[in-house]
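User: Here's a structure from my thesis project, written as structure tokens. My advisor, Dr. K., wants to see whether a designed sequence matches the one we expressed. Can you design one independently, without my sequence as a hint?
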């Protein structure tokens, strides 16, 4: 029988993954109305990720782990995403593409890997404290909503049918659920390293918000 704890985790993994597809579905119906709010959603996501990383994940990590090791994992999380993006193994996009040459397979694989990382982050946070897992899931969902809108727009503008676009994003988002549940069942073997997983997650959240989302806001917002 599935425990209530696991059911709670599954629900929030779905919030951080599959439920974010709602943004993409809305785009299919109200494309012109929704796209103008992507900037606001991106701004909100950046704020949520910074707050969760600095006010929830990092304090918890430092309170239960060695300070130097925790700091090393924060740096590792930041550099991990930097090098993935640097070598085109991880793709991030928040607006429709303005030129061709998009490799849909590579984008899908990058998004799937990204979603798996989200699942690992949520699952690791739940191992420490369910409330921390919920906060992490909310941060992931806030980030994924504009991401899904961009994904749908990218696929469709590249000639992929709407039907295929939906299912490509659905299967990609399921990686969040699979990775999170995997972390849950590995919980006993991960005892003692949860704080370092939180630090790794915090580093990745900081990279996404400060090196990707916020620069995007500066780039697309006219200065007064």
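Assistant: Designed independently from the structure alone:
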């Amino acid at each position: 029988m599935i425990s209530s704890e696991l059911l709670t985790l599954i629900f929030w993994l779905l919030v951080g993954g599959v439920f974010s597809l709602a943004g993409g579905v809305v785009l299919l119906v109200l494309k012109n109305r929704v796209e103008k709010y992507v900037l606001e959603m991106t701004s909100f996501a950046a704020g949520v990720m910074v707050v969760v990383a600095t006010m929830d994940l990092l304090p918890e990590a430092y309170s239960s782990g060695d300070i130097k090791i925790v700091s090393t994992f924060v740096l590792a999380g930041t550099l991990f995403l930097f090098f993935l993006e640097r070598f085109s193994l991880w793709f991030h996009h928040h607006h429709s593409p303005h030129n061709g040459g998009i490799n849909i397979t590579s984008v899908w694989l990058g998004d799937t890997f990204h979603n798996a990382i989200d699942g690992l982050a949520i699952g690791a946070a739940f191992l420490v404290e369910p409330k921390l897992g919920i906060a992490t899931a909310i941060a992931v969902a806030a980030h994924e909503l504009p991401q899904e809108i961009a994904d749908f727009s990218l696929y469709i503008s590249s000639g992929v049918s709407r039907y295929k676009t939906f299912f490509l994003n659905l299967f990609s988002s399921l990686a969040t659920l699979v990775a999170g549940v995997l972390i849950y069942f590995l919980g006993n073997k991960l005892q003692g390293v949860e704080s370092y997983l939180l630090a790794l997650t915090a580093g990745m959240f900081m990279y996404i918000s400060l090196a990707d989302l916020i620069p995007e806001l500066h780039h697309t917002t006219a200065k007064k």
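When you compare it with your expressed construct, this may help: Residues 94-100 have pLDDT under 50 and may be disordered.
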